[in-house]
User: Fold LysR family transcriptional regulator from Actinocorallia longicatena.
Amino acid sequence: MLDVRKLRLLRELAHRGTIAAVAEALAYTPSAVSQQLSALEREAGTALLERTGRRVALTPAALVLVGHAETILAVLEEASADLAAPELSGALRIGAFPTAVRTILSPALVALSSEHPGLELMVTELDPATAPDALRAGTLDVALVQEYDYVPAAPDPALDTEPLLEEIVYLADLEPGPLAGRSGASWIAGTPGTLCHTMTVRACQAAGFSPRVRHHADDFGTVLALVEAGQGVALVPELGAIGAPAEVVLTPLEARRRTRLAYRRGTRRRPATAAAITALKAAVRARTP
Assistant:
């Protein structure tokens, strides 16, 4: 019979790409991961990995097995959720991006602490692009993930999501004007590899030019301060534009940022997960536009 823990390692390898990354995420040694995957191959009776030097690739049989692993792990999560005690207690780990921590997560935490004092609330601030890996690894229970019109999110078979918030994206500058007119401007964008950086590049390309990025900043307060100082222009979503300096002109664009609640498949009925989702949605409804 196939071992569920080994199946999880294979699933993580499919997502993360290297044995070293799987080992780091799940607190194994690389040799232990390799040994477990070799044992899984013996249990399955077929080759699952193609090794070329230090690199490994999944065989067609392994990809089939990964699909089954996703279903098996989700069913086990459902069983655990159905057996969970109705009294809310224990750790609840939530991941969110910085502007959401300030504007959405903080009031949700107040409500959760008041209504469910037995919960041990644990918050991690992170880029939404890294949230799916953390959810699959079990280091988060609920996370806020994002997509932009120019950066759609690929579906993840290990996760379920539901809508939370849609925001306007603004062009932040010291004077009004269309995005297409900023081809010669200096730009302020997020760290390369983040969703915000990718969104800036693709939105500008859709307007007919590639941005000349001078500054990289991931905190929108810093971004707006740089705009106010005349250091460039930037794209800023609605939550990030709260409290913008009076000198900064915010021109709304057609682009939108969409935030969704994400959690592992099968965990929606877990009482703590359900309570977190309820509190976060209530905080969005109560926020001041």
Notes: The first strand starts at residue 49 and ends at 52. The chain has a mean pLDDT of 91.
